[in-house]
Design a protein that fits this description.
single chain; 13 helices; alpha/beta; 2 domains; binds zinc ion; 6 strands; 6-stranded mixed sheet; Nucleotidyltransferase, domain 5
Amino acid sequence: MIPPPTDLLEPSIDLTYWSPVTQKSITNEELGRSGRRSAEQANLAKVKTREYLNSLPNTTLIVFTDGSALGNPGPCGAAAIIHTHGLDMEPVILGKPISSNSSSYHGELAAIDLALEYCVTSTGSHHQHNTVSIQTDCQSAKATILGGRPNGFHTLVSNIHSHILKLEQNRVQVELIWVAGHVNIASNEMSDKAAKDAALEASTWCKEEDNSVKTVQEVKTHIRQGIMADWQRSWNIQLEGRFTHSLFPSVNTKPMRTNFYMATDIKINRLQSGHTLLPSHAHKLGFTPTDLCSCGRDKGTIPHVILHCPIYNKPRETLITELETIFRKANTPFHLRTIDIPTILGPNDALPPDVRLSIRKATGRFISASQAKI
Ligand SMILES: [Zn+2]
């Protein structure tokens, strides 16, 4: 994992001179959020967008842009649909593979750049257009361009700004408008498809042979992926920590947040790492004369205490009832409703985050109620 040489890294550019372009918005709260939009909201978004587009005079060049990444990060592409002669005429379709390994946000910015570059060369004082209206379904790309202080992608944003300045010098105003994505607006769908095609084309680029200039984000992603892959490899072959590996086969930098007292969280962490004060471990360290549990039936191991020891029957019954309720309420598939150590202590990636958090809380209550020395 070697980051690209610095001459292939985009320069950092001061964009503080920038003053925003005309900003219009047809969005409002009623239109909901992407992915959670109801059929009613989608329809409203479509009607509002239609109304807006129909209100534009024929001196406006209507542009739809979209970026797409196959995976996040992944091969990424950009596309623009440009209606040079109104919405009813065949548009110009532009598509461009952008990177073998980047984000859809990168694609979204690149799509706006692609569209504006086209507009700079095809509009001007001798043309009929005095406005370019760009419809993007990416709020953050819009905010970056208007805000003038992007977190990376400096070259792209700087290019976008200079395209806009050139257009303004040619007496062409630029509008940047957010449209709700995936609400069946034909041109938006068309740009979506063209961006996906471009991303597909980028996927044929071999990562090692990709000598395009890298954004700081791409380099960071590249390094992060490399570190994570190295960490995963060494975690897989480590001789120590096999118990923890059985609970957490995949390395992860995200901590599981809970609302416990620190003491309970520490005990859960001890159980997950196998380093506890339970007899089996304490005996190994020479703290106790025996590794037998005080119930006398078996070794005081983590599975024994959590799943079998009669001393903890009462809190265990509560734990099992709570787990069953969590599964039932979340409609968890039956094959995932196992009550075992990986489910109780592990991250169990097959379960949704809210279920995992509820399980962790129930485990914490079991630990507190059991008063076991962990
Ligand atoms: Zn016992």
